[in-house]
Write a structure and sequence with these properties.
heterodimer, A: about 325 residues, alpha/beta, Rossmann fold, B: about 220 residues, mainly alpha, Helix Hairpins, 434 Repressor (Amino-terminal Domain), 2 domains, two-stranded antiparallel ribbon, 11 helices, about 5% strand, elongated
Amino acid sequence: MKPNLINADFSPLRGRIEPGSTIIAVGGGKGGVGKSFISSSIAIFLSQLGYDVTAIDLDLGGANLHTSLGLPLSNKGINEFILDPQAELSSLIQTTHWPKLSLLSGSSEAMDVANIDEIQRSRIMSAIYRHKTDFTVLDLSAGTHHATLDFFLMAKHKVVVFTPEPSSIENAYRFLKASFFRKLRRYEHQLQLKTQIDELLSNRDTHGIKNPSDLIRVLVDREPVLGMKLKNIMADLGYKIVLNQARTRQEVDMGYALQSVCNKYFGFPCEFLGGLEYDNAVWQSLRQKHHLLMANRQSHLYAQLMGIARKIAKPQSQNKAA
Amino acid sequence: MSERYDGQTYYELLEVSPVAGPTDIYNAYQRARATYSPNSPAIYSMFTPEEALQLMSLVEEAYQTLSHQARRKEYDVKIGLAKAPPPKPTAQEPARARSQDQWIGPVKTSAGKQESLPTGFSRTKFSVYEVKPDIETEIEQAQEIDGPFIQKIRLYKGVTLDQMSEEIRVIKSTLVALEANDLEALPVAVFTRGFVVQMARLLGLNERKISDAYMKYFRSKRS
């Protein structure tokens, strides 16, 4: 163990605690599909809807959420949290142009923070989990690294970004599969289904298992009680799909196709949150380092992003009312 | 063939609610067809072409059942969504069997509940009106009818132009022109006849007789 971790406080990791906010994670296998743009937009729109929002850049090796939000480099951020075991998350959060939106930046001059160990990872996750606000938006890195998957799985709303091109679709699906099996691996021990699942997976053909949905179905046939328990736990994944950079109406409709494929492949309901039109204004505004939504409220994109934010916010307001 | 894919019902397969109407089911079917066609980008790396083909045939099967009223009812009973209907009185059986066996189509003007009305009243899709024997005989005996007469019937039965325009999908200005005998504003005979047929059907009249009588007038004035 690194010496500076000895004094770290791990007590909140024990036991079951309620999350301090509704966590939204934005992931997707491929780089450049617009994860940072979408997470910053969701954060901004939720704050515009009147919620307190914290955006956290968890793309530790290539942080750029601050750029999407039109903010300069900062010397306070998630990296300072990693380097200083005494640090409190709330003291590292900075304000933004939007009154109810704050940012925990990932920008830093430190070079090796991208490679954090498991202990650091759980410390970050615990701090995010306890952080008190209405919504926490996590901007994740590309790829299927374990840290990325764990951050993704801790969220209530697991948003995955697709674009209509095949390489992005393939990578996003791989990311979803990886997160499915990461979660499965976590719970199979707990439910004592590991031997069963290993046996099923090594003899897929004899059992006719082609996808996770088949796996769970066969498992439920064999172990009705534990299998159903696992099925319910996995159904909690309920991936939320965003289709970015659609150039035509048909491409926007592809979101429903992706949703249907995910439903059938994973065997639990996923939701298509909405499609976003390809818009040159996005990269133009990124070049000028301010967010598109500062200037342009008449665009299609504005309406589409607002639609997505409302869908995410809706269950929250219902919870509050209840 | 009745084996369910992955334990899914036809509704789950098409991803529609068990109470979805014909239009929803049709749209879902079209969407599923696009999604699981062999070169759909959405299935890439998730389903092999063979699996997609198998899914597609299941989707077809689901649609064949759910788009057909009688088969859908039967299926609902089979999967426990609906209770089996009680045995019907034999006298009504032939009529009912026929009406259930029809494909669900868009035109269903006299659909809906059939609560009994007080005697002396009757109904259209949009209204309940008091039956006036003198107007009924006038309609019965009319040999040649024109726009204002159709309007008179419409008003007597209490259907508004908006309702009519919405229901038979003819713009309001055309209906106004027709009722005002503004023949120049009307389309060619074959279309005008079609409008009159639909108006008559909506008003619960003998569509054949009414349209023939109107066309007699139409042709005599616009030759």
